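<given_protein>
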Amino acid sequence: MSEAVVAKRYAEALFQLGTEKSTLDNLKEEASVLQEVFARNKKILTFLTHPRVKSDKKNQIITEVFQGFSGDMVNTMKLLVERNRVELLPSIVDHFIDLSNEAKGISEATVYSVQALSGDEILKLEQTFAKRFQKKAIKLINKVDPSIIGGIKLRIGNTIYDGSISGKLKRIERSIVTANK
């Protein structure tokens, strides 16, 4: 069975547990923290997946480092240690957050701009695109990308809305090339 399928199954089980216990919002917050922890500190995942470190030591570290987390999240991490599946944790967390957002009608998107957008600009974009996609809300993550020259580019799922100057220039270039053939 592929690792993606296994990660989805663990995420679905955690989602189902959170739904049954009405702790989905809390678990989603913890999952977001885990996502950030693994993105910023690669050493923790290396430690948890290292074959020479005993499971007892890994579980002890999980208990100490994540002591403010719910029992369900900590037990999920310990279960992954026990089954030698800790390397799937970042993928499980990503799938879990997607499931939680989908259940609440929320989508996550990335907006690329030349400079960081203000909170007000992000809020207006979130409202505009939430209506367009018929979602309750859209959570935007702003990434600065000077290569777009100006305007914005928004990626939501597999869809990209390109309102950047560099995108417009590329479209003009393509139309000129196809017109000259």
